Amino acid sequence: xxxxxxxxxxxxxxxxxxxxxxxxxxxxxxxxxxxxxxxxxxxxxxxxxxxxxxxxxxxxxxxxxxxxxxxxxxxxxxxxxxxxxxxxxxxxxxxxxxxxxxxxxxxxxxxxxxxxxxxxxxxxxxxxxxxxxxxxxxxxxxxxxxxxxxxxxxxxxxxxxxxxxxxxxxxxxxxxxxxxxxxxxxxxxxxxxxxxxxxxxxxxxxxxxxxxxxxxxxxxxxxxxxxxxxxxxxxxxxxxxxxxxxxxxxxxxxxxxxxxx
Amino acid sequence: xxxxxxxxxxxxxxxxxxxxxxxxxxxxxxxxxxxxxxxxxxxxxxxxxxxxxxxxxxxxxxxxxxxxxxxxxxxxxxxxxxxxxxxxxxxxxxxxxxxxxxxxxxxxxxxxxxxxxxxxxxxxxxxxxxxxxxxxxxxxxxxxxxxxxxxxxxxxxxxxxxxxxxxxxxxxxxxxxxxxxxxxxxxxxxxxxxxxxxxxxxxxxxxxxxxxxxxxxxxxxxxxxxxxxxxxxxxxxxxxxxxxxxxxxxxxxxxxxxxxxxxxxxxxxxxxxxxxxxxxxxxxxxxxxxxxxxxxxxxxxxxxxxxxxxxxxxxxxxxxxxxxxxxxxxxxxxxxxxxxxxxxxxxxxxxxxxxxxxxxxxxxxxxxxxxxxxxxxxxxxxxxxxxxxxxxxxxxxxxxxxxxxxxxxxxx
Lengths: 261, 412
Hints:
The structure holds 2 protein chains of 2 kinds. By secondary structure, chain A is α/β, with parallel strands linked by helices. Chain A is built from 6 helices and 15 strands.
């Protein structure tokens, strides 16, 4: 049975009846990194240094060294990232069960709302309205909040800071609790720089998606791209972080598989 | 005589390769250079008989005493003879003829040969001798008019020895800090043709940046010294036009070893203050060197904003001090590598600047505008090492007197 399923899957990939969508931003020094007040420790941006380029440093080969933080670019958040998840079992990227890295995705389109209001917050009623159209969110699914924020290729517009901080869309506290407790999601993904809204520090609790999701052993994906190419339901996400010992997260390549109807 | 705006470069003509005047000096003669690097004229004075002597020697030419002390001179004197050189076999001077020279009788009692400023009248004339560094980085003497004249800095011979920003194109590497912004304004006021001003992390908005970015002579350019590709890419775009680099980019945190766990703050300081300079020098250095003799406003200087903490560690800002000491060492390497081209490396060692990261340092603190003014003055005077402000001067004096004593004092 499983062999038949996998053979059918391989055939579907080969024939193109399953389309693979890259949900990943390119790792580039120009891509903005999360910005904390200067007195805090900072996540490194992506940086790259040439080792050799078919030259005197290595005549026949080209390669680079790169550096970045665990939370640079399109990245995965493990429960250990947040203080609320620090004591959970299997809470780091090297110990999370690998089957959690592949799962179905529900894509909630908030692009119109985010375009109208950079501080748009996803609510329970918004999710319930989505479920009324597309069906109930199944257990152990990723919920991905589509905002088209990834189309903001200008780093200034992507970060969207003003004197009161960052203004990017995200979930409110109640919907995070609802998704964890009522829908048993595996994690929450966004297109902006965090799973929480830019003004999430002012919600109760502060940074609810980090606090509640990770406190319940769930995961986060952020800086996703191309969510507009996914159907509301039916896509399967492959999101496996690097196996960093006691890692709190990792940049990763996120792929979605979509049936061509 | 006022220097007219240099014409645009004729792209058909080959760019003249840099040459430098004769640079050999005995060790004792380097005493003149040591003082000139700080903008001072010092001559040997015999502690036994009081004779002021020139040229420098191992012993007093009057009494043979070896007790000679380098002493600041006011340079007052009389031009007793002058001539204009119209022929030279030296590669540097033959390209710059005619060249005015003269013999000066200093009031202090000795006679010197000096380059003569164009505004000095025919001999005999009262003049004031100053020491300048020539393109070889060695001290030479210049006879100036006794009174300041209009556009004195524009003299063709003098501009060979200075790095006046007038009509030059300057890159200021970080315009987001108060120091960077003050430097940009000072350069614009000094008549710089064009100032490129770097800004990293464009989503972080800081007060004042838009105001300088809007000045007519100013062009903002994205530049993050931690990003090798960004530095290379900017050098590819403008490296062939930059005449002066002023590296104002700096990362400053206020930690020693014990009061901040981990490496993040120290590494960020090294990444900008040390590796940032290295990246910048690798990418902008070669074109700067190649254009060191490119007409009346060719490439001429590289300014590093270091810190007086580079001389001795200020433990309250311990990792910052270490990064600046590393940068100072690298700046000496840069100076050595630039010397053959004649591009001057100017190291600026301010004490605490009155900015965010020195909030808890008690006054006196150096105003960013005072630091900027010191940088422009250093370029105009062609000096190599600048210690602007009272704190820097005090540290320098204590360090020169006894580095070990300063170390102990700073650890209290």
